[in-house]
Amino acid sequence: MDTEELFHRLKKFERPYVSRQKTPFWVLIGAILSTRTKDEVTEKALKKLIEYAPDIHKLNELPVGKIEKLIYPVGFYHTKAKNLKILTKTVLEKYNGKIPQKLNELLSLPGVGRKVATLVLSAAFDKDEICVDTHVHRISNRLGLVETKNVLETERELKRIIPQKYWKKINSYFVTLGRKFCHPRKPSCKDCPLKDLCPYKRCAASKAK
Ligand code: SF4
Q1: Secondary structure in 3-state letters for 36-102
Q2: Does 92 share its domain with 109?
Q3: Which of 34, 65, 172, 189 has the fewest CB atoms within 10 Å, i.e. is most exposed?
Q4: Is the CB of 50 inside a 6 Å radius of any atom of ligand 1?
Q5: If you measure from the C-alpha of residue 21 to the centroid of ligand 1, how many angstroms do you get, rounded to a whole number?
Q6: Which pTM value belongs to this model?
Q7: In 3-state terms, what secondary structure has residue 54?
Q8: Cα(154) to centroid(ligand 1), Å
Q9: Does the C-beta of 200 come closer than 6 Å to ligand 1?
Q10: Nearest to residue 133, comparing CAs of 173, 187, 73, 192?
Q11: Residue 49 lies in a domain
């Protein structure tokens, strides 16, 4: 696979809503909301939250019940509301209101796993990290870039084979590709900009149409 050509074709894609947030704080909150939640539901909830509590201080003042109402119906909204409450307090008290830039510090915050932390590092802090979510895992395998069984393996393999200059961009590219064409169940291969590069066998019929 010619990775230069692959990324060249994807560079016109718009970045996903969460990655486009102007501050690391909202990238972090958006990434937390997005776990186990459809993209459009995440987007609506994040917009509502930002509108009601536009910064960390305002969010910190909200009771958990109000946060729950604002983010409903994201997946696990009850737990996420509680985590957001603890997270804002922790960031204010321990990090002076600034989102930490170290992986282990991010991982110590409530509701923050590797996917969320690597998205914050790559999308908000411009660090060379690869955020592997379900889109990146699925598409990397379909494209034959990797042959892996889980997201950790995928991250490790991608870091081995993809030039470092693309690491922080992979998530944005593949999330948008996954939303537009490379859907989990029925990929729209005949319209996909990578169709002539992609070896995914199960969509050979769709390519032929
Ligand atoms: S050709 Fe099909 S399987 Fe391959 S990346 Fe495009 S949509 Fe996904």
Answers
A1: CCCHHHHHHHHHHHHHHCCCHHHHHHCCHHHHHHHHCCCCCHHHHHHHHHHHHHHHHHHCCCCCCCC
A2: yes
A3: 65
A4: no
A5: 28
A6: 0.92
A7: coil
A8: 17
A9: yes
A10: 173
A11: yes
CA–CA separation, 132 and 143 (whole Å): 15
User: In terms of domains, do 97 and 154 share one?
Assistant: no
Do 32 and 110 fall into the same domain? yes
CB neighbour class for 173 (10 Å; exposed up to 12, middle 13-18, buried from 19): buried
Token code pair at residue 118: 């690597």
Q: Among 200, 202, 209, name the best residue to mutate to test ligand 1's pocket (greatest count of ligand atoms within 8 A of Cβ).
A: 200
Q: How many domains does the chain have?
A: 2
Residue 100 sits in the same domain as residue 149? no
Q: Is 209 part of a structural domain of the chain?
A: no
Regarding whether 157 and 71 lie in a shared domain, the answer is no
- pLDDT, one tens digit for every residue, the chain (209 residues): 789 999 999 999 989 999 999 999 999 999 999 999 998 999 999 999 999 999 999 999 999 999 999 999 999 999 999 999 999 999 999 999 999 999 999 999 999 999 999 999 999 999 999 999 999 999 999 999 999 999 999 999 999 999 999 999 999 999 999 999 999 999 999 999 999 999 997 665 555 54
Cβ contact 176:7 at 8 Å: no
122 token code pair: 């790559």
Task: Look up tokens 């989102």; give the residue.
Answer: 99
Q: Are residues 56 and 80 in the same domain?
A: yes
CB 70 near ligand 1, within 6 Å:
no
Q: Give the domain-ending residue among 124, 153, 169.
A: 124
Tokens for 131, please give them. 């955020």
